[in-house]
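Q: Could you predict the 3D structure of Sugar ABC transporter substrate-binding protein?
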Amino acid sequence: MTWIAAVLITVVVFASGHSTPRQHPQRKLVRFWHRWQGDWEKQVQKIVDAFNASQDKYEVVAVSVPGSGADAKFILGVIGGDPPDLMSMGSGAVPNMAANGFLTKLETFMTPEEKRRFFKESYPAIRDIGMYKGSCYGMTIGADLMALYVNVKQLREAGFDPDRFPTSLEELEAMGMKLNKYDEKGNLKRLGFLLSDLNYVSHYFGGGFYVHEDGKVELNTPQNRRALQAIVDYRKKLGFENVLRFQAGLNDIEGAASWAFMHGDLSVTYDGQWRVEELRKFKPELEYRVYPLPPPKDGGKPLGGTVGGNYMIVPVSAKEKLGAWEFLKFWTGLDEPDRAAKFYNMGGWLPYSPAVAKSPTFQKWLKGDKEFQAFLDILASPNCKAPPPIANLQFLNDLISRAEDQAVRGAVTPAAALEELESKFKEETAKRRALGYEE
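A: Sure. Here are the predicted structure tokens for Sugar ABC transporter substrate-binding protein:
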């Protein structure tokens, strides 16, 4: 099915986005679409206002587009010749959009010095997410990583020193079991630790899910099987149904003050770096630590994981590409890292390069939110990777989630789950190539 047909079948009605009125009608208009709402939208508008105040050639007008139809609306805009000039989208969509010819190669806007800085000085994982077939189609204005959030009080009450965290996954699992609390019926009332998310955990076992340009895949590997087996084994100790009941009883809304960790329901949990800023805003009295997930004792790799987040793209049929590029540079900090540092700090986002992270403004902020440093340590590690830059990345991610779910439920063994994953991915790839796709 073609992109056009898929979009026309899937999308019937779009909720309209909303924007602020123009303040500088004499300037060149740069239309910017994003998906943030609520408090996040206010932060974005502050960045837009800062850019508009910094020069007198362009006016960026931000439009909040509901996430449920944003990608489809974008595609229709590109096809119809009326897209935004710039859009922020999830990193996983970038290779697919690039493969279908919807995006502009961003290096075509770069000066030689900007190319050098971007390709040589960026954090490799963050840079690679926006790459497809050797060209840059997306740049981050806020990357995301996962690490462990630790409730200091609960660890101390259980006899653990929160400043001497386990150095192996096995030690962490043992700690987690001692931190669990149950009611008189044996139901979990507090979860000490839960090992999950195969796509992420696999990197700590020396694995990960990769698809290379030559077609070679690393999916059903010994390292990935070990990672999935560890997830299954630990879930058995907790009880699959017990964990489900516990999770169903949580009032845990992403981005809100109801995060279960804030209220003591989770002793050790891994989550994104944006939670550091949320804890500062909504629970400043909570004493906590942040640590990378420790690797297993045998064959493990420290400071691993995959990067995701928000990436800026310029549609191939955008009307004001140069203005879009100027705003993108302004936000990312490609030309002025210290100025851009405060933009990343607003949302608790990870910057595109060490130049921003080491800037005076970022370092000053880091002193107040020192637990954020753990994420920068992971980001700088060679074991922190980008997802494979393939057009059918979402299909692969769905297969990984399904394999984990089936294995954890006991429907199949970890080995069988990953064998099926690789088989289905190769089958889908063969179908796509038969239809004329490169991958």
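Q: Anything worth pointing out?
A: The two ends are 15 Å apart (CA to CA).
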